[in-house]
Design goal:
Layout: H1 3-6, E1 11-13, E2 19-21, E3 29-34, E4 49-59, E5 72-76, E6 79-83, E7 96-101, E8 109-110, E9 123-128, E10 137-138, E11 151-155, E12 161-162, H2 164-167, E13 177-181, E14 187-188, E15 201-205, E16 226-228, E17 250-252, H3 263-269, E18 275-277, H4 285-298, E19 304-306
Parallel strand pairs: 3-4, 4-5, 4-6, 5-7, 7-9, 8-10, 9-11, 11-13, 12-14, 13-15, 15-16, 16-17, 17-18, 18-19
Antiparallel strand pairs: 1-2
The chain binds 2-acetamido-2-deoxy-beta-D-glucopyranose (NAG) (4 copies).
């Protein structure tokens, strides 16, 4: 296990395919203590990214209304007890919102009113740190009015059984990127992604009890380019699970318990695969190496394969097994 998989580091692959870290240290921090109605936050200077911390009480509907030009907003280390209708998106320029909850956060329900006015919102990141004693509830209608949402990332929120209800109000046509990490997913229904025809990146990661995938789970994801299933507990894959991923370029399936890899099926179902990570799965390094060689003979675009736990200068099995 690498450290960065334990920490909730927000790094996303954007529409243009670049990886970016959302929050760097030199961003302006706004801390304002107890909030008052009629006293919106103001910034000295023009910023496109702002992080707000240490705020207590009600997030009034006018609080963020003066953040002109701010596109990315992070609210963290807060003690918000209530969010007034439309408050989060009261600045129309905001396209990205990250909302973090901690052990000492107040219980709160994220309903569609919390996201009212968020018609322009494109990216929503919800992070829940380490088993909150007072649960934050994501209401079934929460994502109902987000017609332009293309990225949804939920980390640390218990889902257990991922089914149609879990995602039913998300706009399936606009969504391009979905991350569900540390969500304690154990079971996934076969039809969950059936209507997410435009999805290009899917991360179902760090769900330690997820040991199998239903066949046909991805069959309607013909535009998917990146699939990450790292850090689950996947075991007896038949590899038929991957049928339909005809555009997939990158598959990460490291840190699981997969005992066999089927080069014929992978080559048949993932004809455009360029990058594959299978490190930290039980087969011996030499077995993985043989599989990788066979797969590379069948898939000529496959150029980037990681199969050793700690690839050195030479990616061979000499130091292992
Ligand atoms: C913002 O807060 C973080 C965490 O406290 C700190 O590391 C960072 O240096 C702060 N940035 C500025 C510009 O003050
Ligand atoms: C905000 O709430 C926390 C937890 O209840 C408390 O420790 C802190 O002093 C409060 N801050 C202000 C400015 O009231
Ligand atoms: C912020 O941007 C606006 C519009 O681009 C400009 O009129 C204003 O002078 C800028 N303010 C500062 C403090 O740079
Ligand atoms: C999903 O794929 C299956 C098999 O290709 C097809 O029968 C079904 O109509 C597709 N569903 C949608 C919603 O596109």
């Amino acid at each position: 296990m690498k450290f960065f998989e334990l920490a909730f580091v927000v790094a996303f692959v954007t529409k243009s395919g670049q990886c970016r870290d959302l929050w760097s240290a030199d961003l302006p921090n706004v801390s304002s203590g107890v909030l008052e109605k009629g006293k919106p936050l103001r910034l000295e200077g023009n910023y496109s990214q702002v992080q707000i911390s240490d705020i207590n009480g009600t997030l009034y509907s006018d609080l963020l209304s003066q953040l002109h030009g701010v596109k990315e907003l992070r609210i963290w280390r807060h003690h918000i007890t209530e969010i007034e209708k439309g408050a989060l998106c009261s600045s129309p320029s905001v396209k990205t919102i990250e909302l973090d909850f901690y052990l000492d956060s107040e219980p709160i329900t994220l309903s569609k009113d919390v996201f009212a006015n968020c018609n322009n919102l494109e990216e929503l990141i919800l992070e829940f740190y380490g088993g909150l004693p007072k649960p934050v509830i994501i209401a079934p209608d929460a994502f109902e009015n987000l017609p332009n949402l293309y990225l949804l990332a939920i980390q640390g929120h218990k889902i257990t059984h991922l089914n149609e209800r879990s995602l039913r109000k998300v706009n399936k046509q606009s969504l391009i990127h979905l991350t569900l990490s540390y969500c304690e997913i154990e079971e996934i229904d076969v039809n969950v992604f059936e209507n997410f025809n435009n999805l290009e990146a899917l991360y179902i990661i760090n769900n330690r009890k997820l040991d199998h995938l239903p066949k046909n789970l991805f069959r309607n994801l013909s535009k998917l380019k990146i699939l990450s299933l790292r850090g689950n507990n996947l075991q007896d894959l038949t590899w038929d699970e991957f049928e339909g991923l005809s555009s997939l370029k990158k598959l990460q399936i490291s840190n699981n318990k997969i005992s066999s890899f089927d080069a014929d099926k992978i080559a048949a179902f993932l004809p455009h695969l360029e990058s594959l990570n299978i490190e930290n799965n039980p087969p011996k390094c030499k077995q993985k190496e043989a599989f990788v060689e066979e797969l590379k003979r069948k898939l000529h675009h496959l150029v980037d394969v990681i199969y050793k736990f700690d690839p050195g200068f030479y990616d061979s099995c000499e130091q292992e097994d």
